[in-house]
Each structure stands twice: as C-alpha cells, then as structure tokens.
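Quick start: read one record
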Amino acid sequence: MRKKIIISILFACVAFVVSTHPQTAKADSDVVVFYDSLAKGTDNEGNMDSLLRMLNSLGKRVTIYAWEENPDLSQASEIIVLQNKKDQLTDKWTEKLAESKAKIAYIGANPPTFLANKLQLQTKAITDTSITIKTEAGLAGKPQLVNETNLITSYKGEALGEMDAAENGKAAYGIRAGNYAYTPIFQANNTSEFALMDLLKAVFEIKTTTNQYALITDVNPFVDFDLLKKTADTFYEKGIPFIISAGPVFYNQDFQAAKNYAEILRYVQAKNGTIMMDVPVVTYGDSPPGDLENIIQKSLHFFADHDIAALGVTAELYWNFDKVYGTEGFEPFNTGILLPNQKIIHTTKKNNGSAFEKSPYSVANDFYETTTSGKNFPVDIAVTYSFFQNEKELKAAANNLANENISDFRYKDHQVKTNKDTIESNAGSLYINNQSVTLDGDLKYIKTNKDKTKKQAGSLEGFFGYQNTFFTIIIVLSLGIIGVLFIFGYRLYMKKYMK
C-alpha cells in the first residue's frame, strides 16, 4: 500500500513538473505566416493585411507568429515568411525552417542561406526606381516607385510573373523549385498581390476559379432608397449582376422604416442583386457570450421573413482574428468576403483565423480600372464600390463594368444556417427554409410610404402657407402703426419748438 502511495506521489510530481514547464505553441493550421513587422510608414505598409485576405480567398486557414515568438513548426505543412525589414532571420528561426519538411514561401530582401542554396538564387539590389509587375496571365497595373528592392538574376526552377525595372532590366517576379518559393517584393494595392497569388498557388498546389463579381458596400437603412433603386435598375438594364453588402436590422424590426428597407432589398434581389449581410457596426470591444450570435440570427431571420435570401457575410479582416467576432459572427456562413480594415476594435485578438469555402478577394474599383491585359486575375475577385453618392458615380461604375465579364454570385452554392432559418442558393435559385423564393419587384411598402409622405407634406404646406399669410398681415399692420406713431411724434416735436 505504501509503495502505491509513493508511486502515486512520484507520478503527481512528474505531472506537475511537466505541466508547469513552459510549452511552445502548436502550429497545426493550413498555413503558418511568420512576419517581422507591419511595415508602418514604408512602401510595404498594409501588405500583411492583404496577405491574410489573399489566403482566405485561397481557402487557407492561417496562424500568425511574430519573429520574437517561438512556436513549434514540426507539424506545419505550409509556411510563409514575410520579411519587411532588412534584418536577416535569427539563427534559431533559420534552423527551424531548414529542418522543417513544410513547403516554404519566402518574401523579402534577405532569404536565409539554406533557401538561397536550394534555389541557387542570386539577386542584385536596385534603388529609387520604377517597376511594373505582371502576373502569369499578363495582368499588369501602373508603374510604381520603390525605394529599394532586389532583382532576381540567377535561379534554379520555375519563374513566375515578371518585374520590369525600366533601365535596370526585367526579371522574374518570383521563382519556385520543389517545396520552396521566393520573391523579393510584395506590396498592397498593386499587381504584386496577384503575382504573389500565382507563386503561392504553385508552391502550395492550390486550384482556384477565376470569376469576377461586382460588390457594393455600405448599404444600410439610412441610404437614399431612390438611388439604391436606380442602382438596381441601371445594373439590371446593362446586364450586370451585382452583390449588395446590406447592414443588419436587429432592433425595431416592426417599424415602417425597417419594412421599407426590407422592401427595397427585395427589389434589389429581383434585379439580379445578390444580398450578403454586413456585420453589425462595432462601437466598443465588448460582447457578452451569445449576444452577437443572437444579433446575427435575428438579423438573418428578419431578412428571411421578408423573402430576402442573405447568402453570405461581409466583414473587415480583423473580425476573422477575434475570439468572439470570428466565431459567433461567422458561424452560420460558408460564404464571406473580408474587406480591408477601417477601424479595428477587438474583443480579444487571436492569432489564428478560419476560412470561408467561398471568399472572393475584394479589389478596390479604382485599382481594378488601372489593370490591363483582359483583367485575368488568378482568383475569384469582387470589384468593390462604396454605395454611390449620386447618379454620376453610379453611371460611371455601370459604364466601366458593362464590358467586363461580371458573373452572377448566386450561381455558386451558398448555405446559411441558424437555429431558425436555412438559406441556400442552387444553380441561381434561392431557397429559404426549403421554399423557393419568388423574385418580386413590387415596392408596396415604399409606395404606401410615399403616398403618406405626400399627404403629410401637403397638409404641412397648407399650414405653413396660412402661417406665412398671418405673419405678413401682422408685420404690415405693425409697420403701419409704427409709421403713424412716428408721424404723430414728429408733429408734436415740431410744435414744441415752433412755440
């Protein structure tokens, strides 16, 4: 008995020692992204956020580590190193990567020696120059000025894309051999995003579709409904299918304004508009457990109750790396579009994110319009417009898209599922709780509201007209009395001095 007690105590002590010993994090997601900085104030600022959105569109779940962290990479199968500074990798990290059996893509000026040797890589530095980057399909944008980068001069393996550095010559944008890939440059909001996608697709063996969609964001119950109707009509007449990112309604759903909002969205849906629900606006970083889940379900049910099939979700990137937003906010959806961050307000930040089954990459419309060569993007994209301020902006957008190959997003298979509702699309048809949705363009609520508005405006006009007449008479009478008193006073004054 004593022996058993002693053995139990020994096991307990061993367990205590093991449990209290510092342990490294396990990297078991699809891709590990390892970065040195966010490149604030440099040419590369924003490239980390772009990379994370790109990987989501490529269907990859991501775990992020900074240089000072020490994760266990033994289980990682795919690794991306993003180097924005000139500093080389530490010996510890170099050793980890060299020993790893993962596929590795390295982005930056100073790749480690083991990688350069495997790729037989040689480069030359260029400074203060203009470069133009092309993808494998020949997609190119405007030339861009860079302070410093490298040109690949010699390598082993497959070249992907092209970097034209004017007087400094042309070179491959990136190279790939076996499990390794390298590129010296990656920036946000230019064609290096898509040249890098080609490189990542090659080294990680990713297959993608290459559809183009039109996305209009910032639609909510407070926008100009007449302009929204005009938008739907204009795009429909020009044969341009489109996606609307519509803000949710989770309070005051029985108000006439909420019903009007639902009615205009139903009209948009009837005009080849696909509805996606935008996430609620975040004002402070706190959300009690289940609160956001309830808001999402109520909002989806409000749409479903008005025959609006919200087929996915739109949100800023940081939602995907938040413990509450990325779970409760995204749980019902298999389709989502991650937008660039505007204002980050976390509940609790986390270093790993999920991936949607379908997630077109959001591309700013002004960048899209500068690209050339048939706009052959290597992944599904959503050409993104903020809701138009006026008809001039609307017409310009419609004219720009009219000759492009814009696809109808509802022809993808989408599914949204909550405790109350199941919303789906199949071959272009919409279903809510297994019932086919009738695409009805009758704006009954808005028509009723307009009639009431006209009657109210008429009655107010009569009231204010009466007020104007009344005050005009009062003012004229007052001026007349003042005039009489002035004359009477003047005569009294003159009589006084004439005596």
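The chain has three domains: 31-204, 212-446, 455-499.
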